[in-house]
Structure formats: structure tokens, C-alpha cells
Automatic annotation (TrEMBL), chain A:
Protein name: Sulfurtransferase complex subunit TusB
A Gene Ontology BP annotation from the UniProt entry: tRNA wobble position uridine thiolation
Alphabetical list of Gene3D superfamilies matching this protein: DsrEFH-like
Source organism of the structure: Pseudomonas mangiferae
Keyword Transferase annotated: yes
InterPro entries linked to this entry: DsrEFH-like (IPR027396), Sulphur_relay_TusB/DsrH (IPR007215)
Name of the coding gene: dsrH
TrEMBL record, chain B:
Species name: Pseudomonas mangiferae
The protein's name: Sulfurtransferase complex subunit TusD
Main location group: cytoplasm
GO process annotations (BP): tRNA wobble position uridine thiolation
InterPro entries: DsrEFH-like, Sulphur_relay_DsrE/F-like, Sulphur_relay_TusD/DsrE
Length: 101, 130
């Protein structure tokens, strides 16, 4: 059962990001919001880890949070930038939503 | 589709604003919100006494208006609320506190209401966390 994983904390401050990546299923999706978008910073370990995810894992990024952190021209080609209606739709494209609180 | 939304973070946190924007998009998309559940520091969003700085968005007021305007089932975890001083008139009287400050549109209830919301909804989406 495919799950959308919702991350909102910086990958540089705790283990949520790394734990989430370890548990990702082949068909799961990953949505970066809030400080989790810092994972897109080029030249960092989190960014490299995202680039190495299987192509079947969808990488979504919440537009407002991406822009607020000045990373809007830094996202990898595989990332899909979504707004809030897109966030709602993404929740429905997966059987479950897992928020990494 | 039916959504349950749980908010764990204080109103001044980005997660609270994100949860509200998400909730607005759920309704705008023609979906239903079966319950908004405030837990942990999220209970502060149901306080009628919080005063936001003039140059900041008043998320607490926005949440209250949103819940009331759409007639949503806004539930606040009673144990989390009591320990943080968010009381309705019954609890203020019960514990001999000088005032009640639960904003209109919200009601205090148990954690079981979150469990029930999860059973009712197609999706649970949580916001916040330390």
C-alpha cells in the first residue's frame, strides 16, 4: 500500500529525514514542506540521498515553503513543485499519509 | 473525500499556518473535513486570549473564523488543554480558575475523538511536532 510521507523538519537537525528515507517503499511519495525543503540544498548529503531515490518514488515540494527559503531555482529535475490544492490531491493519490511529526 | 486534520504545533509555528492553508484547500477542492483535532501545543490555537503582534497574521483568530464559518467539528484534547490553561466555563468552574478562554467554535473532548475521526475519514493529515 503506497504511502505519502510528509516531512516538515530540517534534515540537518534530527533523524526524521534519514529514518523516512530508510522506510520508503518503491511506490511511496515524499512531500517536502517547511524546513524539510532545506534537503534540496545542492552539495549536501540530504540532496544526494534524494537524487539516489528510485525513480518510482515521487518527490513533491510545497511551493510556498520552497520560495520562502530561496531554493526555488535549486530543485532537482525530478521534483514536482505543488501548491496547496496539489497537496490535497497528493494525499488522495496515496492510500495513506504519514506525517513525520 | 473525507479528511481529518490534526494539529500538534502552537499557533505561532509555521506548521499551524500550513495546516490552515491545507484545510482551506481541502474545502475549496470540494472535500469534507470530518474533524479538526488540536493536540499538544496545538491547543493554544483554541485560546480566545492570545494576542498576535500587529504585523503578524493572527492564526488563532483565523482558525476560529475558519471553524465557525464552515461549521466544522473543532475538537481540543481536554488533557492537553487543561495543562496549558485553555479552559471552557465548565472546567474553569470545576478547577476554580478565574476565567474561561476557549474560543467559540471549539469544544474540549478526549483523545478518543482523534481515534474516531481517523476511523471516519479517508485520510488523516497531521501537522506540527517538536
Amino acid at each position: 500500500m503506497a504511502t505519502l510521507h510528509l516531512l516538515s523538519h530540517s534534515p540537518f537537525s534530527d533523524e526524521r529525514f534519514a529514518s523516512c528515507l530508510r522506510l520508503l517503499g518503491e511506490r511511496d511519495g515524499l512531500l517536502l514542506s517547511g524546513d524539510a525543503v532545506h534537503a534540496l540544498q545542492p552539495g549536501t548529503a540530504p540532496r544526494d540521498a534524494l537524487e539516489r531515490l528510485p525513480a518510482s518514488v515521487a518527490l513533491l515540494v510545497l511551493e510556498d515553503d520552497l520560495n520562502a527559503r530561496g531554493l526555488s531555482d535549486r530543485q532537482p529535475a525530478r521534483a514536482r513543485v505543488i501548491d496547496y490544492p496539489g497537496f490535497v490531491d497528493a494525499c488522495l493519490q496515496y492510500a495513506k499519509v504519514n506525517s513525520w511529526l | 473525500m473525507k479528511f481529518a486534520i490534526a494539529l500538534f504545533a502552537a499557533p505561532h509555528s509555521p506548521a499551524s499556518r500550513r495546516a490552515l492553508r491545507f484545510a482551506e484547500a481541502v474545502l475549496a477542492g470540494g472535500h469534507e473535513i470530518v474533524r479538526v483535532f488540536l493536540y499538544q501545543d496545538g491547543v493554544h490555537s483554541a485560546s480566545a486570549n492570545a494576542v498576535a503582534p500587529q504585523d503578524e497574521r493572527d492564526i488563532t483568530a483565523d482558525w476560529q473564523r475558519f471553524v465557525e464559518r464552515h461549521g466544522l467539528d473543532g475538537v481540543v484534547c481536554i488533557a492537553a488543554a487543561l495543562r496549558r490553561g485553555v479552559l471552557d466555563t465548565d472546567e474553569a468552574r470545576r478547577y476554580g480558575r478565574p476565567a474561561a478562554n476557549l474560543a467559540p467554535g471549539w469544544q474540549l473532548s478526549g483523545l478518543g475523538q482523534l481515534h474516531e475521526a481517523v476511523q471516519t475519514a479517508d485520510r488523516l493529515v497531521c501537522f506540527g511536532g517538536p
